[in-house]
Amino acid sequence: MPIDQSFRFSVAPMMDWTDRHCRVFHRRLSRRARLYSEMLTTGAVIHGDRQRLLGFDASEHPLALQLGGSDSADLATAAKIGEDFGYDEINLNVGCPSDRVKDGRFGACLMAEPALVAEGIAAMKRAVSVPVTVKCRIGIDDQDPELALDSLARAVVAAGADLLVVHARKAWLNGLSPKENRDVPPLDYDRVYRLKAALPAVPIVINGGIAGIAEAKPHLGHVDGVMLGRAAYQEPWRLLAVDPELFGEPAPYPSMTAALQAMTPYIEAQLAQGTRLHSITRHFVGAYHGVPGARAFRRHLAEQGVKPDAGIDVLREAIARVEDRVVEVA
């Protein structure tokens, strides 16, 4: 059975970064990229302000909700809430290394409890009809990645998981900060390739340290999809290459300037609802690369966009400081 091409490229879920405004922006850069929410705990989804936490713009599809949790009943309930909100996929976080996550018995520490993770996947599969997926590491701490990843993968696949996203690093829960866990543990892409070879019928997406679309392409000879994290967020201009380079389709807009201008109706609607301009434009900081005026663009947004009364004119003025040309993509 052919692998669903909608998983060929995705932007990773990132706490404090991939909020609804960021995702609307990223959608202006690629029609085909699969987008993910920030991780939400099952408790927040079940008991919190759902519209504030889960609400999204219709343009964001295909869009996945990432959940954090380990109680199978709560995972099923939260997954159903996500499906009812219109999310296209429910993803379980088995990779986040923060202390807060570990204390709550979710995230990367669950790599040590594959049976518990499988219970959660099975419960979510019974509750929803959209794909249920897992994002994990290759192991934690002293685990042997050959055994740890294989054990988790086989358990969740047997429970019905539709796809695995594998961050090709261990998480070192003892001794490293969450930030250090994004860089210090060595990358092992070959381990993810071996997982795909061992489970050829299971869609496998690779994540971790991939710096751009040109670097992503070779991975697709080994796995079914590539997920970009910080490179996509900090250098969003790279996303303009996704559709032409990975899907053989034109980008939604020919330049970053055109994409930012296309954000105007959304921004105006958000401002009318009381959203601060900076809440949206903070995601634009890395929009331009190697373009004359990029620094002036960033400075203007930083100085003027944070003002309480900042309006759409601030963005227009910032854009006017940049030379309008098609961005070189890679």
TrEMBL record:
<comment type="similarity">
    <text>Belongs to the dus family.</text>
</comment>
<dbReference type="GO" id="GO:0000049">
    <property type="term" value="F:tRNA binding"/>
</dbReference>
<dbReference type="GO" id="GO:0102264">
    <property type="term" value="F:tRNA-dihydrouridine20 synthase activity"/>
</dbReference>
<keyword id="KW-0819">tRNA processing</keyword>
<comment type="similarity">
    <text>Belongs to the Dus family. DusA subfamily.</text>
</comment>
<dbReference type="Pfam" id="PF01207">
    <property type="entry name" value="Dus"/>
</dbReference>
<feature type="domain" description="DUS-like FMN-binding">
    <location>
        <begin position="11"/>
        <end position="317"/>
    </location>
</feature>
<keyword id="KW-0547">Nucleotide-binding</keyword>
<feature type="site" description="Interacts with tRNA; defines subfamily-specific binding signature">
    <location>
        <position position="298"/>
    </location>
</feature>
<keyword id="KW-0560">Oxidoreductase</keyword>
<keyword id="KW-0820">tRNA-binding</keyword>
<feature type="binding site">
    <location>
        <begin position="13"/>
        <end position="15"/>
    </location>
    <ligand>
        <name>FMN</name>
    </ligand>
</feature>
<keyword id="KW-0521">NADP</keyword>
<feature type="active site" description="Proton donor">
    <location>
        <position position="96"/>
    </location>
</feature>
<feature type="binding site">
    <location>
        <position position="167"/>
    </location>
    <ligand>
        <name>FMN</name>
    </ligand>
</feature>
<feature type="site" description="Interacts with tRNA">
    <location>
        <position position="182"/>
    </location>
</feature>
<feature type="binding site">
    <location>
        <begin position="229"/>
        <end position="230"/>
    </location>
    <ligand>
        <name>FMN</name>
    </ligand>
</feature>
<dbReference type="GO" id="GO:0050660">
    <property type="term" value="F:flavin adenine dinucleotide binding"/>
</dbReference>
<keyword id="KW-0285">Flavoprotein</keyword>
<protein>
    <recommendedName>
        <fullName>tRNA-dihydrouridine(20/20a) synthase</fullName>
        <ecNumber>1.3.1.91</ecNumber>
    </recommendedName>
</protein>
<feature type="binding site">
    <location>
        <position position="135"/>
    </location>
    <ligand>
        <name>FMN</name>
    </ligand>
</feature>
<dbReference type="InterPro" id="IPR013785">
    <property type="entry name" value="Aldolase_TIM"/>
</dbReference>
<dbReference type="InterPro" id="IPR004653">
    <property type="entry name" value="DusA"/>
</dbReference>
<dbReference type="GO" id="GO:0010181">
    <property type="term" value="F:FMN binding"/>
</dbReference>
<keyword id="KW-0288">FMN</keyword>
<feature type="site" description="Interacts with tRNA; defines subfamily-specific binding signature">
    <location>
        <position position="295"/>
    </location>
</feature>
<feature type="binding site">
    <location>
        <position position="66"/>
    </location>
    <ligand>
        <name>FMN</name>
    </ligand>
</feature>
<feature type="site" description="Interacts with tRNA; defines subfamily-specific binding signature">
    <location>
        <position position="179"/>
    </location>
</feature>
<comment type="function">
    <text>Catalyzes the synthesis of 5,6-dihydrouridine (D), a modified base found in the D-loop of most tRNAs, via the reduction of the C5-C6 double bond in target uridines. Specifically modifies U20 and U20a in tRNAs.</text>
</comment>
<dbReference type="InterPro" id="IPR018517">
    <property type="entry name" value="tRNA_hU_synthase_CS"/>
</dbReference>
<keyword id="KW-0694">RNA-binding</keyword>
<feature type="site" description="Interacts with tRNA">
    <location>
        <position position="93"/>
    </location>
</feature>
<dbReference type="InterPro" id="IPR001269">
    <property type="entry name" value="DUS_fam"/>
</dbReference>
<dbReference type="InterPro" id="IPR035587">
    <property type="entry name" value="DUS-like_FMN-bd"/>
</dbReference>
<dbReference type="GO" id="GO:0102266">
    <property type="term" value="F:tRNA-dihydrouridine20a synthase activity"/>
</dbReference>
<feature type="binding site">
    <location>
        <begin position="207"/>
        <end position="209"/>
    </location>
    <ligand>
        <name>FMN</name>
    </ligand>
</feature>
